[in-house]
Amino acid sequence: MKNSKLIDALNNCVAHCNYCADACLDEKNIQMMVDCIRTDKVCAEVCSATAKILATSYEDVNDLIKYCHKLCIECAKECEKHKDHHQHCKECADACRKCAAACEEYLNS
User: What angle do the packed helices 87-108 and 4-25 form, to 10 degrees?
Assistant: First the structure.
């Protein structure tokens, strides 16, 4: 599949964002995690939709990938605020950064 590398990065990001959002719900001070949860959920939805569209032969995807890249960067920044206290946030930030890099690579190819 032409877009398999980006699709893999997107699906990995989806998995990490969903896991992070769920794990944040179990944290003692959940109020501090609200922005992280919201960002995780939106990032997961956009990455999921992008992966599904890339699996088709539809070609007008650059704006969607640019938006996905932007959200992945935002999610990584939000999760990085909590990375010293929550392993799930550290892992999510890493997955989001890798996904953003894959989006950038796709756009530059």
Answer: 160
For the chain, the maximum distance between any two Cα atoms, rounded to a whole number of angstroms, is 45
Give the Å distances, CA to CA, from 81 to 9, 55, 75, 93.
Answer: 22, 33, 10, 10
Q: Which amino acid is at 102?
A: A
Out of 1.20.1070.10, 1.20.1270.360, 2.60.40.290, 3.90.1150.10, which CATH number does the structure's domain 4-108 have?
1.20.1270.360
Query: What is the residue-level pLDDT of the chain in tens, covering all 109 positions?
Result: 568 999 999 999 999 999 999 999 988 888 889 999 999 999 999 999 999 999 998 889 999 999 999 999 999 999 999 999 999 999 999 999 999 999 999 999 8
